[in-house]
Design goal:
The complex is a heterotetramer, with 2 copies of chain A and 2 copies of chain C. In chain A, about 30% of the residues lie in helices and about 20% in strands. Chain A is of the alpha/beta class. Chain A has a domain of about 210 residues: Rossmann fold, CATH 3.40.50. In chain A, the strands form 2 sheets. Chain A has an 8-stranded mixed beta sheet with strand order 2-1-3-4-6-5-11-7, with helices on both faces. In chain A, strands 8-9-10 form a 3-stranded antiparallel beta sheet. The radius of gyration of chain A is 23 Å and the shape is globular. By secondary structure, chain C is α/β, with parallel strands linked by helices. Chain C contains 20 helices and 22 strands. The radius of gyration of chain C is 26 Å and the shape is globular. The relative contact order of chain C is 0.09. The chains are: A alpha/beta, C alpha/beta. Chains in contact: A-B, A-C, A-D, B-C, B-D, C-D. Chains A and C meet through strand 1, strand 2, helix 2, helix 4 and helix 10 of A and helix 1, strand 9, helix 9, helix 11 and helix 12 of C. The complex binds thiamine diphosphate (2 copies), iron/sulfur cluster (2 copies) and magnesium ion (MG) (2 copies). One magnesium ion binds next to helix 3 of chain A.
Chain lengths: ~350, ~350, ~625, ~625
Amino acid sequence: MTETITQPIKMTRKDFVSDQEVRWCPGCGDYAILAQVQKVMPELGVAKENFLIVSGIGCSSRFPYYMDTYGFHSIHGRAPALASGAKIANPELSVWVVTGDGDAMSIGGNHLIHTLRRNIDMNILMFNNRIYGLTKGQYSPTSELGKVTKSSPMGSLDYPFNPPALALGAGGTFIARAIDRDQKHSMEMIKRAHGHKGTSFIEYYQNCLIFNDGTFSDLTDKTTKDESVLKLEHGKPMVFGVKNSKGLRLVGSQFEVIELNGAFNIDDVFVHNENDKNLAMILSELTYVDHLPTPVGIFYVKDEPTYEDMVHSQIQEAVSNKGRGSLEQLFKSSNTWTVE
Amino acid sequence: MTETITQPIKMTRKDFVSDQEVRWCPGCGDYAILAQVQKVMPELGVAKENFLIVSGIGCSSRFPYYMDTYGFHSIHGRAPALASGAKIANPELSVWVVTGDGDAMSIGGNHLIHTLRRNIDMNILMFNNRIYGLTKGQYSPTSELGKVTKSSPMGSLDYPFNPPALALGAGGTFIARAIDRDQKHSMEMIKRAHGHKGTSFIEYYQNCLIFNDGTFSDLTDKTTKDESVLKLEHGKPMVFGVKNSKGLRLVGSQFEVIELNGAFNIDDVFVHNENDKNLAMILSELTYVDHLPTPVGIFYVKDEPTYEDMVHSQIQEAVSNKGRGSLEQLFKSSNTWTVE
Amino acid sequence: MTNSKTNVTELTEVTIRFAGDSGDGMQLTGTQFSDNTAIFGNDLATFPDYPSEIRAPAGSLAGVSSFQIQFSKLDIHTPGDDLNVLVAMNPAALKVHLGDVKDNGTVIINEANFTKKNLNLAGYDCNPLETDLLKNFQTVKVDMTKLVGTATEDLKLAPKLIARSANMFALGLVYWLYGRKIDNTVDFIQKKFAKKPEIVEANLRALKAGYNYGNTLELVKTTYHIPKAKFEPGCYRNMMGNQALAYGFMTAAEKSGLELFYGGYPITPASDVLHYLSGYKNMGVKTFQAEDEIAGVVSAIGAAYAGDLAITATSGPGVALKSEAIGLAVMAELPLVIINVQRGGPSTGLPTKTEQSDLYQAVWGRNGEAPCVVISASTPADCFYTAIEAARIALKFMIPVILLSDGYIANGSEPWRIPDVDSLPEFENHKTSDPDGYEPFDHSSEFLARPWATPGTPGLEHRIGGLEKWDGAGHVSYDPENHDHMLRLRQKKVDIIAEEIPDEVPYGEASGNLLIISWGGTMGSVRSAVEHIHLENKKVSHVHLRHLNPFPKNLGDIIKRFDKVLVPELNLGQLATMLRAKYLVPTIQMNINHGKPLKTSDVLNKINEILGE
Amino acid sequence: MTNSKTNVTELTEVTIRFAGDSGDGMQLTGTQFSDNTAIFGNDLATFPDYPSEIRAPAGSLAGVSSFQIQFSKLDIHTPGDDLNVLVAMNPAALKVHLGDVKDNGTVIINEANFTKKNLNLAGYDCNPLETDLLKNFQTVKVDMTKLVGTATEDLKLAPKLIARSANMFALGLVYWLYGRKIDNTVDFIQKKFAKKPEIVEANLRALKAGYNYGNTLELVKTTYHIPKAKFEPGCYRNMMGNQALAYGFMTAAEKSGLELFYGGYPITPASDVLHYLSGYKNMGVKTFQAEDEIAGVVSAIGAAYAGDLAITATSGPGVALKSEAIGLAVMAELPLVIINVQRGGPSTGLPTKTEQSDLYQAVWGRNGEAPCVVISASTPADCFYTAIEAARIALKFMIPVILLSDGYIANGSEPWRIPDVDSLPEFENHKTSDPDGYEPFDHSSEFLARPWATPGTPGLEHRIGGLEKWDGAGHVSYDPENHDHMLRLRQKKVDIIAEEIPDEVPYGEASGNLLIISWGGTMGSVRSAVEHIHLENKKVSHVHLRHLNPFPKNLGDIIKRFDKVLVPELNLGQLATMLRAKYLVPTIQMNINHGKPLKTSDVLNKINEILGE
Ligand SMILES: Cc1ncc(C[n+]2csc(CCOP(=O)(O)OP(=O)(O)O)c2C)c(N)n1
Ligand SMILES: Cc1ncc(C[n+]2csc(CCOP(=O)(O)OP(=O)(O)O)c2C)c(N)n1
Ligand code: SF4
Ligand code: SF4
Ligand SMILES: [Mg+2]
Ligand SMILES: [Mg+2]
């Protein structure tokens, strides 16, 4: 049930570039992510023909066209469900879902949470630009309250979803956050997602130059990013700020910022444990808190049997208990009578 | 925008009993909940004609027929969306959604999480019997892993949702749990839900006698319930067990049971704070943990402006800024020219 | 075995309905009777009718559950119209069903349940057993519960268990009335309740008590004998419609060398397809109970892309939800079967009742020009062959197929001649692994089927999706001419299937005064009516369509050879609309929407009315 | 103002297309030209055509954006077929659009963009300005970018801003060519960019530079004059289709004394309805951007139950998702309008292109017998009146109405005579507050509309839902006769609307050789073709249907008076199927699916072909 390696020839990024012209706005964050994925895939030890990339509808969802793998550009919101069927049908495949904040969290919210709870082995990359790009700029379920857009000229009135919190609440077993502009870290996240057997969810902050430029600039601008990004690393204290001069400590159920220059030192800083769900939930709450940094990296990982593995073990179990069924047997599995 | 009290005559339970014969299996937990709601409603100070009960499809969703209020038995999974429209259209109404674990969390999961994040003022009572009752007994998204049902003869393979965790992850502002058999506590929960301005979500444990009898018997049987139920009360220490002999304390990010007879006393017990979201999330994780009690009561409450209030204030603001629009104005709102 | 003083009369066919409260075990009783009847050798058809509510209050009208069976020495097609025998276990059952009993028919009653409370619940002001309501019937009143109590006195059973065993008493009595042996049912009871010996004993004693009661008490003057029917030689079993669908798709999977994937969400009356399939893990069946109907069909589309024989089953409201995704399957040209076990609509409608009102939806219910193949099953056993046909078409033509069944045939049953496994055809499919000249949307094959390159196949990497595609290469294309071409090509993919399915042969003469065209579950009633009318030498013929889109290619020619065309349907005229649009033929409609199967007698009346005009 | 050496030729009508890269501002240029033309007093119609991709790569074929306008001294109905003038701002625009220019038409080119890179991107091997590709046209090659640069030299602008202002140069040039004043556009620029004086200045200089360039350089020998059209007296403005829908529903709400509720999910090309409505909070409009289409329509059903005028707008894939809920609205008999701004299907299809292929879906795309009223808009301004008609029917008959528009009329524009607010009719509705004899499903009113008792009304508490309901009392009913009755009643609710809508009056004579029946956005092209053919005294008449379900009651009679019936549609024959089924009339189909509006010339050719047969 593991992805087989049939292709010993070393692949490169080019092997994953399709012949289709890339059609995103020049400067769109999607380009960076595409490059990151194209760079990571050759290194995963998976034969090229075993990759399947499924998407919904949105700017982000055009992704499969640009990858020289099997790909399915499906309908709006349904990619996780399509990917589930494909993975159950053929567990050998390395299945990837590329989706947007609208695709995954608005129309597709239900499939997303159900896929997460079922723990079907796939890697969901949600490009969160906090806007509907393809339909030209309405607010999305991750847009901040009060956002002025085409459909909310006086400001939007919906409180946004907090994607890692929702994914954790749904029972997800791998929850991470990456940023389009941080190539090294993002590639690391993609690799880890691939390595996780079960549903991996990466919230990928992505800049939409046209309709929502700069939403994440705090986290990407050289001058501000140190202060605003908290890089989560398993087993490491949660430090951030210029020269890691700050840290987080847990008081009761709340995080507090401490300065590591006087009263506090590194031992007072809470150490990240990516296997602690309670911690992950508390960390996810930092997403929209102004005076606390935004965590990126792996919030949570848990190893649990995947849905499709259980499907196939039930089949094996049934076969070994009852023997492989035949049509003959099936047809005669109830009272029969013979007419001569 | 508050529910107006136009009916000074004191109402009783009978005022809320419709002329329709109640058609649940004898002994179904739904009867108890119906009685609880019928007893609470007359006390809420809301005129009878202002109640609107919306449901989806399922045994539980037949609820509106039995209430002598306005009611809409809609389609499977869509009750929160229908209720949203009604509440936005007429914020004077006291809107209630009655739904099942399948209706709310399977087909209706998306509307549920979006309603929760928008904080539209309504009270959602989700009758969780951890089974599909009306369709005669398939496992539901809240059924425990390995459940043998008509559609899972070798045991179900889906990890269940944890409803309070999902609701918290979605951004809910009032999350509680009640049990059909505990009338007094449940009525208290209903009242509190009504009192909360915003989306209230009550996970109502409900026994399905026919297809899932006894799922909650641990929590309702006299002999076991003290040990297995943790009643959350704001500002009170989290004690449970026979004669409240046990308590929970928080160590780092994890709860631990302590016995209150020796090394520990009541001061070591964590005090519940229904306004602490981090705490609520950690508590919600106790749902499926064998050696820890199951919390019931209010996990979390937060006061935040409701969606429909914001809609109507935008309208008011627009009117006061631009004046109430007229068709005349509207028609001439762009370049015009006159032909004589 | 029959008491010497009782006469035995031979009959051609009989219709019996067992009716009682949901808790009275009528479905089990009926199933036992029909299994027994089948094994005896009659032809038969059954029709179970459940209340919609889960356990409606005991004794209420809404809580009545019934099971009807017609059995015969001849070939029959329906569970019968009017009843020879009604078994009414309580007043509500009598109230609901008495109107269907023939004059002078037999009504068997469990007096025990005719209590004041039950009479009230049924809306009887006074006890019908004490009025002359039953005077036109042969009434057999027995306090079954009491007699079961007596027969089990020594066991000291709980009164509840005694009351619950009354159904076996009734069954025994009816076995006696039709000169049947009880052995099969004895076996069944012993197996079914093996772990509960008390229940076994209670049921066996009740069964025998009922049988002996008839035998010894000269209850009625005559018992009946219905000789064996003439069946084609072979091995037979009973088969229900939804079961036959499950069997059909498992067969198709085996015969095509594919694995079977089922993605779906429970809904009455389709859920049993999922239930049956989930029980055959040892045949490699993968069932995925999805979060909703959309995920059900979309997961199946994913499985189809990945190379499985993929199906989904639902009912009308579920198809509505799936319709966007079915359009995707049309665009992606993937093999997929969507089963719709129809129920009463619109909206939630009458969810436990039968109807044929989703034909429009199947043919026309999608955005854009999104033609699908539509076929329908006509009897419970026919569901097996219709499933195979659906899979065959989907695989051969790389196209989604909608299979229409309905609540009536889904839950009904009839004897099924078990086919020889080897005689069942193998299936073609379009899997490919050859990169040479491969194009994902290559339509150069005879029937326009595109190649099926599944993920995992080296060198055939490609992308598909819901945007318009360039014929051949399959990349996204906004080219105006290509779009027009592709719309017509997808339509043609459906239309040319008409070339490949067998011509229709009317039942009856090739020309005449009246042609009846029907589809789906009305097959039996219409055929029976036509058989009747043939006895009067009338020139009436019958075409029962399995293929609804496309129609068989000679249908237009057949129609031309008749003066009039009658289209009976359980809707407001959906097939009629299709026939009128396609053949510009005036149709006479017969539309009855009672949530029940069509009655042979109604068809017969309509035929006579038309011929008499 | 025109240079003395240039002749002025008078023309009846002209078609111009502005085409360039998505970044070239063609939509703005086109809109300015049409506003100006409207104010001048020509009749006009416009057609913007966007690329489907958000900012496809600059210079690519996929990135070409265009705006077409036809203007005339006569009454016109379409944005025109072939072009008198093409403005091509880059090689890709030339490549895509040159084929549509009339022989000897004018092609205005911004030479600046004919760089090697752009030529490559457009797929030109060599520069078409240097070949004889343009020899059949009057070609005006200008390095607009350079000239704008010169004109703004003193401002020291960024090259990007200069390049972006080239569109104003082109606009100025075309203004000059048609003898128009630039004042309106000057005003517009000043207002629009008020906060960015640099941009104002750049644009104004470019505009004037273009104008003067024509004026001073004797660029062409002739300029043109298109005299004012004769309009009905009144006050006019330009109106786009989606905008007109929004205005229509706001008007309906005011006129019915109801509040307007919009629930919906964005989708091309319907999103603008939401955008417009969300801008009118000061008219009390409540817009709810839902999580998906299902929540969009279901929230509207909730709002309708609560007493608002409730609408939802989407396109075909969205209607597919809404179809289950529309069935609920049918069952609940609530007033509701579902707008479908159609686009190319099936599935995601050609999302930014126009088509008429969701008619089947509107009429037949639901489970069960779920009849809805279906009406369609035919021009941008007609959307206003169609919206009012939809709301009127929904409220008067307590029924869901599907309103079909399409991408072509949604984004197109035409002059709209602003109606006198008081002359617009008030609306009836069925709100009730009288408990006396109240029954929720009382159908005793003239048109079978049930009373509308909204939550909050004392004494009228009641329950509704999707299960079959007892006529009158409205409680759940499984009664067979009642179900049949209710199915027919709901069908009748639609059918009797035919009694109440005006009879159709064919354009042209009442009888003749050929009747053309069309619907929706093809109105203009068909009408133009028929006007042409009337000049030849041919007996061709035209019926353009607004009401598609039910049809106007005299449609069958009209059809009988013609030898032949032609049904032109942008699909594979959906209205044709409906007409055939209803009237058993053979239809000649004309089906073009290019994702573009129908061409007048194609209709004309088809008419001639038929008449010539
Ligand atoms: C059923 C359906 N509804 C609506 C749409 C229109 N639509 C396409 S993409 C999209 C949202 C895109 O937003 P997101 O998922 O955030 O992707 P992005 O473009 O921002 O990458 C919408 C509303 C559609 N294609 N199908
Ligand atoms: C669109 C649609 N899909 C499926 C169904 C069938 N259905 C009705 S209720 C139900 C699930 C009921 O479970 P739950 O919500 O837990 O309610 P319960 O009966 O247990 O109270 C299902 C699958 C339906 N009515 N409509
Ligand atoms: S609209 Fe935004 S998200 Fe879409 S391609 Fe352009 S920049 Fe990227
Ligand atoms: S099936 Fe279960 S949930 Fe439904 S009415 Fe019966 S006991 Fe209650
Ligand atoms: Mg987005
Ligand atoms: Mg349930």
